[in-house]
Amino acid sequence: MSEVKKSKHPEGLFVLFFTEMWERFSYYGMRAIFALYMTKALLMDKAGASNIYGSYTGLVYLTPLIGGYVADRYWGNRRSIFVGGLLMALGQLLMFFSASNYQNVDLANILMWLGLTGLIIGNGFFKPNISTLVGQLYPRGDSRLDAAFTLFYMGINLGAFFSPIVCGILGDTGNPADFKWGFMAACIGMIIGVFSFELMKKKYLVTPDGEAVGAISNKKRDALIAATEGSADSAPKGKISQKSMLIWAAVLLVLVGVFHFVLEQDWIGSVIFSISVVAPGLILTDSSLTKIERERIIVVFIAAFFVIFFWAAFEQAGASLTFFADEQMDRTINIHTTYGIVYLVITLLAVVLYYVLQSIMNIPKEYKIIFAGIGLYLVYLTVKGFIQGTPFDMAEISAATYNSVNAIFIVVLAPLFAELWGKLGKRGLEPASPYKQALGLLFLSLGYVVIAIGVKDVGTIKVSMMWLITLYFLHTVGELCLSPIGLSLVNKLAPARFASLLMGTWFLANATANKFAGTLSAFYPEAGKTTSFIGYKMTNLYDFFVLFIVMSGVASIILFFLSKRLVKMMHGIK
């Protein structure tokens, strides 16, 4: 095997990349049209739609805590991913039926909530376990792990790139009856992802030694590792005491009451915020943890705390920034060409993407055959388009489609960041994970500085789309510094027996952030309406965006100052 071949990432990474791409197609396609569906088809007001959006996206990231626990203790990663994927496909199908009956508001709402329930529970089993499998493909201490998660993150955003375009074109047409087709497209994407995973997992999801990954629970895997290393007798066997569980259960009830009755949060928000406090405390009371393990887990929790502020501002994309694109932004584009040109551009982009992927990852031969077939079909469509000369006209870009902008930048920049971290690592110059995350928060803040400048003193004039596109570019740079690095950090710092559970706890920070994002989006100012958050009054979009500048900027500064101490607590792992 050549040296170049050895340096590539394994085929299993591409299988996970492809599976996660379709799952994210399903999630982001649905998310792109969800708020618009509620306001335009079910005729909800923006505040109500924002709160439901926040509750849904918050719960989506809460249930991985349960799914991670089940995988760690009982099912293993593979079975959890399969069950979760099927539940999410069912959820999207129910969203299709909800949109099919949008004129019967009561029935549409019932079907919507049933669909959301399937998506929430299914995601809980799917998301933490597929992320955990990435780490298990590599031997301990493999320097490629940060790059692997960056590439995996590219797969996430490849799905997030074309799903808002597809679901937006099908669903956000101006006719409420068409939303159902956007949800159906999301359903089909999820089905493709699940069955691709099932067909490829036995052959490619293996360790460098050929052992299957994710087939057994992480608890059993931890015991096998201990036995193999000759330390079975000394393998950690402690557990959280019943007394500790009762104490934290009482704390949970008290916190739920405080959040709901004192801080006036809704019940879903109260539960999410309370669990976000209790779950880390409960894990840290596990008596099997050594001093080093406990300090490393504390680093994960501190990093997760700052991630809350990042995602609360970043996730405005699906709510307030979508409202902004729909109402306040000039989306005129006036493209006049032919379908031959359109298919040619798509074909060239597909070729470039395939070239980049095959240069850094080993692609399974089954996928190569499929891609070759797709390539030939695109060539056929291109030639047919040029011969027929069918005109293609687009007057404006739908508001939902702008959810793809961030993903476009991710797909373009992710390989560059993977290369950057790799080169810096070889020279001993790669910053530790906490510093990378602080940089991520800084770029997030700069994005809101840009959009605040764009909307200042514009009055009733619609602003150029370039302001929003620039914001998404800066947010993408911040995201690549923070999110894939965070996933890698959990894999590197978590004890094997807590791998999926701690991944679930990491996503718990996303749950808190997404619910918080919905809460903040509800303050989106409309004409003649003044909103207030902790005494800060907002009468226009400039005031609204300044809130996010301050929030993310302060979080970035604090994390920078804490990073040196956090690196020390990581005990040599960077």
Description:
This protein is mainly alpha-helical. It has a single domain (8-239, 286-331, 397-569), classed as MFS general substrate transporter like domains (Growth Hormone, Chain: A), CATH 1.20.1250. 75% of the residues lie in helices and 4% in strands. It has helices at residues 3-7, 11-40, 46-62, 64-75, 77-100, 105-136, 145-171, 179-204, 218-228, 242-262, 267-284, 291-314, 320-327, 339-360, 365-388, 403-426, 433-455, 465-493, 499-521, 541-569, and strands at residues 329-330, 332-338, 391-396, 463-464, 531-533, 536-538. A two-stranded parallel ribbon has the order 1-4. Helix 12 runs parallel beside helix 17. The radius of gyration is 23 Å and the shape is globular. The two termini are 30 Å apart.
Blueprint of the fold:
Blueprint: H1 3-7, H2 11-40, H3 46-62, H4 64-75, H5 77-100, H6 105-136, H7 145-171, H8 179-204, H9 218-228, H10 242-262, H11 267-284, H12 291-314, H13 320-327, E1 329-330, E2 332-338, H14 339-360, H15 365-388, E3 391-396, H16 403-426, H17 433-455, E4 463-464, H18 465-493, H19 499-521, E5 531-533, E6 536-538, H20 541-569
Parallel strand pairs: 1-4
Antiparallel strand pairs: 2-3, 5-6
Helix pairs in contact: 2-3, 2-5, 2-6, 2-7, 2-8, 3-6, 3-19, 4-5, 4-6, 4-19, 5-6, 5-8, 6-19, 7-8, 7-16, 7-18, 10-11, 11-19, 12-17, 12-18, 12-19, 12-20, 14-15, 16-18, 17-18, 17-20, 18-19
